[in-house]
Specification:
CATH class of the largest domain: Mainly Alpha
Helix content: 40-55%
Number of strands: 10
Number of domains: 2
CATH superfamily of the largest domain: Transferase(Phosphotransferase) domain 1
Shape: elongated
Order of helices and strands: HEEEHEEEHHEEEEHHHHHHHHH
Radius of gyration: 32 Å
Oligomer: single chain
Strand order of the largest sheet: 1-2-3-5-4
Strand content: 5-15%
CATH topology of the largest domain: Transferase(Phosphotransferase), domain 1
Distance between the termini: 134 Å
Length: 368
């Protein structure tokens, strides 16, 4: 009697779990992700000669889970933006499970990238790209509602993609199926932070807004996603979630407490986005984007009231290159003038030196 080793058993289990699309166009290559809701596979599209991602709902889960993935697919189909993963197809496998085929996203999640020694300016540019994608979604009447570093992917060529629109919601009915399909409904079998029932908590502990933590699902608007963007900025600056203790009602520790090198203007922008009162936050993702752009350009940030010293420092930093050239020129002028003056004074010094005076007396004696 022979026994199979663990590696072989795992291989056989993986082969058995591979979905059969019933279409020779697609060849499943390997599983690249596993979660409580489903699995993600790398698939070869033989017709177009490209690799795509196949997302399949796990068997045996409640129908509401499949409906959530279907909502996500329909939302992604409406949001055609470079910062949002495009979906190519959706349907059901021969065994009845729901699947989606979408762009294969390769890169690093932002939470992993945040640990790298990236310059602050580069971190801000990444967040600005996230703001652009979220602002576009808002223009289409869609809220993400679960913005966090884990839901942002940065590709090796600098592309920035916002992922996981599974709890997204339409906030302005368009008359299409999108508005109907994104109506909140209880999703059984999911963690409390992922449930989407009316009055339930939607989002992720540590990153969700106060109104989300109170279960005010019906009163959310763009400023809820602004809070999520501020939470991502906080993580990029400090390396931790704004509510690291998962207590949303607790006061947020200012970023400069963790790192004194963070600019006050950048801290002010972060704290405004994270204000507990939605009315005091940035009114939109675009407004936060614009303030971050002003910071990078050395302009005044609307969220920060500058002191005179800070205004001078910002002005000096903004014009540091021409100022350095002017200072260098003036120093060179001083050095050249000192050298010319020294050169003019040298003959006089030579004539008035003791040796020169003795030589003059000897010459006078010889003449006499």
């Amino acid at each position: 009697m022979s026994f199979l080793n663990d590696a072989l058993l795992e291989h056989l289990r993986g082969v058995a779990d591979r979905p059969d699309l019933g279409d020779p166009r697609y060849e499943v290559l390997a599983r690249i992700g596993r979660g409580g809701m489903g699995n993600v596979y790398r698939v070869e599209d033989r017709l177009l000669g490209r690799q795509v991602a196949l997302k399949v709902v796990n068997d045996g889960l409640p129908q509401e889970v499949a409906e959530r993935m279907l909502r996500e697919a329909r939302i992604l189909a409406q949001l055609e933006h470079p910062g949002i993963v495009p979906i190519h197809d959706a349907g059901r496998l021969p065994d009845g499970r729901l699947y989606c085929i979408m762009k294969l996203v390769e890169g690093r999640r932002l939470d992993a990238l945040a640990g790298d020694a990236l310059p602050v300016a580069e971190r801000i540019r990444i967040l600005m790209r996230v703001c652009e994608a979220v602002a576009f979604a808002h223009s289409q009447g869609v809220l993400h509602r679960d913005l966090k570093p884990e839901n942002v992917m940065v590709g090796e060529f600098g592309e920035v993609l916002v992922l996981d629109w599974g709890v997204a919601k339409a906030v302005s009915p368009t008359g299409s199926a999108l508005a109907a399909e994104t109506t909140d409904a209880t999703v059984a079998g999911l963690p409390p932070s992922q449930a989407t029932s009316c009055g339930a908590v939607i989002g992720t502990s540590g990153y969700m807004s106060p109104e989300q933590s109170r279960g005010e699902a019906g009163g959310l608007d763009e400023r809820t996603d602004v809070y999520g963007l501020g939470a991502i900025l906080y993580c990029l600056l400090t390396g931790r979630a704004p509510h690291a203790d998962a207590v949303t009602s607790a006061a947020i520790v200012p970023p400069r407490v963790h790192d004194r090198s963070i600019a006050r203007a950048l801290e002010a922008a972060c704290l405004r986005a994270l204000d507990a009162d939605a009315g005091r936050r940035y009114p939109s993702a675009q407004a936060l984007h614009d303030d971050l752009a002003r910071f990078l350009l050395g302009q005044r940030v609307s969220a920060h009231r500058e002191s005179l010293v800070e205004r001078v420092e910002r002005w000096v930093w903004k014009y540091r290159t021409p100022l350095l050239l002017v200072v260098t020129y003036l120093l060179m002028r001083v050095v050249v003038q000192a050298w010319l003056q020294l050169k003019e004074d040298r003959p006089t010094l030579e004539r008035t030196s003791p040796g020169a005076r003795q030589s003059e007396r000897q010459e006078d004696d010889e003449h006499e």
